[in-house]
Write a structure and sequence with these properties.
This protein is mainly beta. The protein has one helix at residues 107-115, and strands at 16-20, 23-24, 35-39, 65-66, 72-75, 84-90, 98-102, 126-127, 130-131, 145-152, 155-156, 161-166, 169-175, 181-185, 200-209, 226-228, 249-260, 265-271. It has two domains: 16-131, Sandwich (Immunoglobulin-like), CATH 2.60.40; 145-271, Immunoglobulin-like, CATH 2.60.40.10. The strands form five sheets. It has a four-stranded mixed sheet with strand order 4-5-1-8, with no helix packed on it. The model has no long low-confidence stretch (mean pLDDT 88).
Length: 272
């Protein structure tokens, strides 16, 4: 039955369930690099395929449509239920993947609001999660930061979270990947620590999930914890912004007062 036009007309009405605008955690701008966003599930991996190129973590999954603006869209449909879990998978390791659970407004609520001429604005159905630099991130030569690896008995610690702080104030965050690699770019909240001097003594804190989730051969992201973002319309959202660590994450290592030269990248291997 028609909900907008008289019954003699045919119509197609599409309503927004999720608008997703992934942003760069360093520049705070929309991500222009290739990025796949899909409804979470077990990807269609060929376990006998060669190790390179890496198999897609969204193969065979229902992907969100990307508009020319860089926004991704999920429309209401028969298979869309709340909450929706999404996986954000950058290509070429320029960013670290994330898995996010989104509690959306149901289509029934949207229709009921429309019937009362009280539309639910699309802004309350939009999220802007940050993606953090990966090993292949394009970084300015004058940036101050740390490329590092986190290992435990020689094995990479997967999906770590990193905080760089000065005098107890966080001035940079990073997400680690499945290889234990991270790229920490300093610059967030640097005004809170006063005049910067080189070298700058930065404390690097490492958090990891305890216990780690089990890995699966047919899904590279199976052990990447799902994070539940804030409810529709809530801002700021510290989960989307990568500030609040996932549940069960604990501190596993810390490098106190590590000297970093301003305007340069340094390398810091960290053993748990």
């Amino acid at each position: 039955m028609s909900v907008v036009l008289p019954g003699v007309f045919d119509e197609l009405v599409q309503r927004l369930a999720i608008g997703l605008e992934p942003r760069d955690a360093v520049s705070q701008t929309r991500i222009a690099r290739p990025l796949d966003v899909a409804v979470d599930g077990a990807p269609d991996f060929d376990i006998d395929a060669p190790p390179w190129p890496e198999p897609s973590a969204v193969a065979g999954l229902s992907r969100l449509t990307r508009h020319g603006s860089g926004r991704f869209v999920l429309l209401y449909g028969p298979t869309v239920r709340t909450p929706v879990t999404l996986r954000l998978v950058p290509r070429d390791r320029r960013y670290v993947p994330r898995r996010l659970e989104v509690d959306i407004v149901s289509e029934g609520q949207v229709l009921a609001a429309e019937a009362l001429d009280n539309d639910i604005p699309t802004t309350s159905r939009t999220w802007r999660p940050l993606l953090f630099p990966g090993a292949g991130y394009d970084l300015a030569e004058t940036a101050t930061g740390v490329r590092g690896t986190v290992t435990d008995a020689g094995k990479p610690v997967r999906w770590v979270r990193i905080e760089g702080s000065v005098n107890g104030r966080v001035i940079g965050r990073a997400h680690g990947d499945d290889r234990g690699e991270f790229l920490l770019v300093l610059g967030q909240n640097t005004g809170a620590v006063g005049d910067l001097v080189s070298p700058l003594a930065v404390t690097i804190t490492v958090l990891a999930r305890n216990p780690a989730l089990p890995e699966k051969k047919n899904d590279a992201l199976a052990d990447l914890q799902v994070e539940t973002v804030a409810a529709p319309g809530v801002s700021p959202d510290d989960v989307s912004n990568g500030i609040t660590p996932p549940d069960h994450y604990v501190q596993v290592a810390q490098v106190p007062d590590h000297p970093l030269t301003l305007g340069r990248l340094s390398s810091v291997p960290i053993a748990v």
